[in-house]
Amino acid sequence: MLKKIALLMAQGLLALLPISLTLYFLVWLVTAIETGLTPLIPASIYFPGMGLFAGLLVLLIVGIAVNVYIVELFIGWSGKVFERIPLIKTIYGAIQDAVNLINLGKQQKIQSVVSVKITESIHLIGFVTSHEGAKELFKDEKKIGVYIPLSYQIGGYTLYIDSDQVSPLDIDVETAMRIALTGGNASGFKAGQKTKVPSTVIKTNKVP
């Protein structure tokens, strides 16, 4: 009886954990922004929530600015400076890699989702990246770069393989990445679910 109660409690905890952690993170983020920006706002015009509003406004302005060519050049130059400073380059590089991984699909660095054939019965989910790296490394061979993410962690490895060893998958990049990162347990996805696929997927097996 006690084991059954403990099991039910554990199931309840697991059910509430994703929602609870998400709400906790949002509350923490709002509080941090409000606390950090409130001292910068004159007391005569301050009202509760103004710090958060100012923070969101700053993010919007920065988001618009990074699409301006001169600002983009400045940010790129700043990144190169950080990459030359010992210790700082390690921290900056790790954060940059994590951001790049999250933002791969949005930046269109991933061209399509593919199945990489390991054996007759074993396949891996892969993401075709730019062909430029493969051309530089393997000048006389028709290879493509395929990124293979690791489940339940930020990281992965890149395979350079012949294009005829991969097959395009009928699934969008975001959904495929969620499935790969969660070990096939992505929430909100059902087996056999059809998703809209970019037209570039059809060109996966062709190496320019």
TrEMBL record:
Keywords in alphabetical order: Membrane, Transmembrane, Transmembrane helix
PANTHER family linked: COV-LIKE PROTEIN 1, PROTEIN LIKE COV 2
Spans through the membrane: 12-33, 45-70
The keyword Nucleus belongs to this UniProt entry's keyword annotation: no
Protein name: DUF502 domain-containing protein
Organism: Paraglaciecola psychrophila 170
InterPro entries noted in UniProt: COV1-like
Keyword DNA-binding set for record: no
Lineage, top ranks: Bacteria, Pseudomonadati, Pseudomonadota, Gammaproteobacteria, Alteromonadales
Coiled coil location: none
